[in-house]
Amino acid sequence: MPNALINENSPYLLQHAHQPVDWHPWGEAALEKAEREQKPIFLSIGYAACHWCHVMAHESFENGEIAAILNQYFVNIKVDREERPDLDGIYMQAVVAMTGQGGWPMSLFLTPDGKPFYGGTYFPPVRRYNMPAFGEILLNIARLWQEDRHAILEGAGKLTAHLQGLLRVDADANVSLTRETLEEAVMEIARRYDWKHGGWGRAPKFPQPMTIEFLLQRAIRGDKLALDMAVHALDSMAKGGMYDVVAGGFARYSTDERWLVPHFEKMLYDNAQLALVYLHGWLLTGNQAFRQVCEQTLDFVARELTHPEGGFFSSLDADSEEGEGRFYTWTIAEVENVLTSVDDIEFIKAAYGLTEQGNFDGSNLLQRVMTDEELTNRFHMSLEDVHERLKVCHQKLLVDRSRRPRPGTDDKVLASWNGLMQIAFAEAARHLQRSDYLEIARKNARFLGKNLMVDGQLRRSWRAGRAVHQAYLEDYAALILGLLALYQTDFDMGWYRNALQLKEDMLQHFSTPSGDGFYDTRNDQKPLILRPRDLQDNATPSGNALAVSAILQFAALEGRPDWQDQAAGMIAPVLEQAVQFPTMFAKWLCAADFTLGPVAELVIIGEMEHPETRAMIEVVRKKYRPHLVVGHSAYPAASDAPAILKDRGMVAGKPTAYVCVWNTCKHPVHHAWQLEQQIEALD
Questions:
Q1: What Cα–Cα distance (Å) separates residue 320 from each residue in 323, 326, 338, 405, 407?
Q2: Are the C-beta atoms of residues 472 and 85 closer than 8 Å to each other?
Q3: pLDDT at 232
Q4: Strand, coil or helix: what is 360?
Q5: What's the confidence (pLDDT) of residue 171?
Q6: Domain range annotation of the chain
Q7: Average pLDDT for the chain
């Protein structure tokens, strides 16, 4: 008989709906049950693509004996962290405070009023990995709840007070924003950089797209060290292993320091951010391999993570029917059966170092061991022929792989992650001249407007025709940035109007009383043990950092120095931590770099059909210019157009471009070559 999760919308929760555990979704009914029965709460938080979540589910939650203990002594609540980032954030801080580390599955024990008193991550069903058995933990906590409840309640109160203290933001800025400050952040990033394998940290090693983005922004300023790190990191990750060279797209992280063996789940947010930094890397360096990774990643999302009506799905699972990662690995025999040609087989063996014993569980993960240049020498081919042969062989392998049992898809559509991916498709459409990418971005924006706006209020999650959960700060801010990216690609005023409305809603429902930033949750959301305000970037950018970035763009587009000052005021208290721990606050550093300026505003007035208008628009699409905002309109501009378009007309009846820096404008020009000179002078 199914439990109470059977009526939920989340694929992760539905995975647990037929388990013998009497699961409940988070909500008033479960909390009232705990209070009424005076039982502690067992809170399990995970997500659909999480491998170890599946392991614990199979070992413990499908185990009748363990389920009986849970049902007798606890009220059991299951949460999808992707639907409820507020709960995940609060209780992850609790687990880290108690154990020094966190992760998923997250296992928490709470008092009936939701205060945590014990927790961890994965617990095995029997003693192993130097960990106690899950059943033993459950019985011990049940005993302590009966025998020493006062001590548990006292400890839970102290831990909750500690978590509330973590929310305080030091209003006194000890570090001022200067070029030297950001140079110091680059040096700190360099101290932690792995020059052998690329990236930051040891095993497990996570991609750091926000850090790379900051380095690329500093490279624009002439910082060679920043450029060297960014290029080396992008090169290292693109070799394969964590990057899927056959189909495109990145796995969540590498279990080793060499980017070889991934944790195989593919998350939408990783691929959104990584596609974008590879695009920017190509624009800055001209490295065609970076462009290829960007396009292959976006093509993967379009092919495998997109709803027919335009929404982007959340993830591909780490597991398939054949086990973790088997979908992505190859034996020599499988490669030979697919490629058939002796020349192709030897070529791929050499490119990826394929062996009979393999590099992962008896099979081969495809990671490049020979460069394109080495392949040209080995096989006496031109560079163009190497690229073509790789492309042909990859396509054959992809067709064959598509016949294997596929990993599961988490097909819920999350507002913030869709916003991040919308940015990537919109910018790629702009810079790569890909009309198909533009249509994907437009279709996504229309989908979100139709399905995630309910009674004028943004929702967090959609699946199977149902939109659920109030949206969070990150949802509003990411969608605003997505719409602004789309507006600056096709200049459709509808996107800008929608972005402005979301901004007003964000300010109304998330602002702190002091005006120094935002809470992560709405002011009309049912209260939790605290109102979260997470300033640190994680796998996705901090909601506050995204909001600051959105305000900065609006400040430039609307000519509002007061909004710029507001954003600078939000950055100031975070700056000291950002310099000390730059990989944890990289999105803030990107915003700080933008604030430092100079920020250029480009206005192009003229009919889009006019050749000179189009030529001038193309000028700004040739390079990576993170400190530029662009507006276009026919004449006259709409009454609700960005302020930088107001009172700007065509001079002498010709398409006209205005380049301004902080509202100080250069002489208007009529030709693309003149505009290019003015823009280049800003670099």
A1: 5, 7, 21, 6, 4
A2: yes
A3: 98
A4: strand
A5: 60
A6: 4-165, 205-321+410-596, 326-406, 600-682
A7: 95
Beta bridge partners of 481: none
Lowest-confidence region among 167-171, 199-203, 380-384, 472-476: 167-171
Architecture per CATH, 4-165: 3-Layer(aba) Sandwich (3.40)
pLDDT at residue 609, rounded to an integer: 92
Length of the chain: 683
pLDDT of 175? 82
Best CA proximity match to 462, nearest among 484, 444, 480, 478: 444
Q: What's the CATH class of domain 205-321+410-596?
A: mainly alpha
102 vs 412: CA distance, rounded Å = 25
Does residue 88 register a pLDDT over 80?
yes
Q: How confident is the model at residue 612 (pLDDT cuts 50, 70, 90)?
A: very high
CA torsion, ordered 157, 158, 160, 163, to nearest 10 deg: 170
Residue with tokens 């008896």: 362
Which one, of 169, 104, 50, lies nearest residue 532 by Cα?
A: 169
Q: Where are the beta strands (DSSP E) in 464-616?
A: 466-470, 600-605
Task: Give the pairing of strands 106-110 and 41-46.
Answer: antiparallel
Q: How far is CA 187 from CA 178, 182, 218, 225, 411, in A?
A: 15, 9, 12, 8, 41
Q: Return the closest-CA partner of residue 498 out of 482, 511, 512.
A: 482
Bridge partner list, 505: none
Give the 3-state secondary structure of 609-658.
CCHHHHHHHHHCCCCCCCCEEEEEECCCCCCCCCHHHCCCCCHHHCCEEE
Q: Is-contact 112 529, C-beta < 8 A?
A: no
| Cα gap 673→433, rounded to integer Å | 20
3-state secondary structure of 453: strand
Handedness of CA 27, 31, 32, 33 (dihedral sign): positive
Please tell me the distance from the alpha carbon of residue 624 to that of residue 513, in angstroms, as a whole number: 37
Q: Do 4-165 and 600-682 show the same overall fold?
A: yes
Q: What is the mean pLDDT of residues 367-375?
A: 95
* Residues 600-682, CATH architecture: 3-Layer(aba) Sandwich (3.40)
Q: Residue 384 is which amino acid?
A: E
Burial tier of 356 (Cβ tally within 10 Å: 0-12, 13-18, 19+): exposed
CB 159 within 8 A of CB 117: yes
